[in-house]
# Entry
Amino acid sequence: MRDTSNRKSILIILIVALLITSSTLIISFFARGYQFSLKEGFSFKATGILSAISKPKGASVYINDKLITATDDTINLTPNDYTVKITKDGYFPWQKTIKIKTETVYQTDTQLFRSTPDLKPITLTGAINPSFSPDGSKIVYSVASASATKDNGLFIIEFNNLPISLTRGTPRQLSRDLANINWSKFKFTFSPNSRQILATNKNINYLISLDTPITAKNLIDVTDSLKAIQKDWETQTSQLIAGKLEKLPKEIQPLVSTTSAQDIQFAASEDKVLYLAQNDGSLPNNIVTPFPAQSTQTQSRDIKKGNFYVYDIQDDTNFLIGNSSALQNPNWLPNSNNIVFIEDQKIKIVDYDNTNKQTLFAGNFNQECVYPWSDGSKIIIFSSPYTSAAQNLYTISIK
# Structure
């Protein structure tokens, strides 16, 4: 009897183990994109997976012009090329032709942008000579309003590291106009670390620390040491650029421009770099081993001097964004894989692989002053509603 009982226990254990193993195997097949097929008997059918993700959520997903589902959702597809379109009312449509591969997950990770811009002023009394910090966290400018003499002076707008979100982006006065100083007569340049500004005009130059209050006593004319300060800042900029270059594969480093920090910018994730080519050249294939879900969008591995490109370090893909003669002031949109730039006197945005180019704004604006808001939800512009009106800083909501 005891032997019979033992055999039953062993049999039950084996059956349970077999069920667990089978279930695990089936689950792993489903996770890798396999599906049951009854067309040729009972079998597993190899597929790939499309993970349709969008911001905002709840957008419609079309595959080959057929409405399939809404984001966020996953779809099993047989290996092939598909046209995927994601749409939502009030937003520009997003569309790409993608290649689905067996046992591979393709994630859209789509950022949709508003099709109707919402323009709001940041400043109300005019802004003179605005300057944006290299780290994208500050703007300094001056105010000279005849109707508000006591409010004239030097102002700053900060976007980061503020404890109360309601105060983020609110102008704050750094200094009133002083006895012999009219800040509207100065131009402002940030230091490479964004902690100092150089206020300059034809007659006098001040180096201002943003870590200490500005008073008449601590404002010192640095004209005699101006060249030394500028040389030191050039050295700091060169060091910043060198640090960025070290993050790139050695095969691409000789092709990247090193004249300005603006010419080499990493996305927030630091796996993609926007760069201006300083030399002609060619990128070899397989610089790094790419992920299985490598982008299948059209690449440009033959590099031409003067073009902006995006290189994806993880995917080992390289995409042409545009020529520097036509494309101005490109910047990564924070918290995204999109690039904001100026082309044909319009503010445009494009995916890092040069797809889904859209026009965000085509009104009147100063083309030298277009920058993304620190969280990527808005674009900052410098504009006036009509010719004789004072110029002010505005935001354009794009998400």
In short: The first strand starts at residue 35 and ends at 37. The domain at 35-111 is CATH 2.60.40.10 (Immunoglobulin-like).
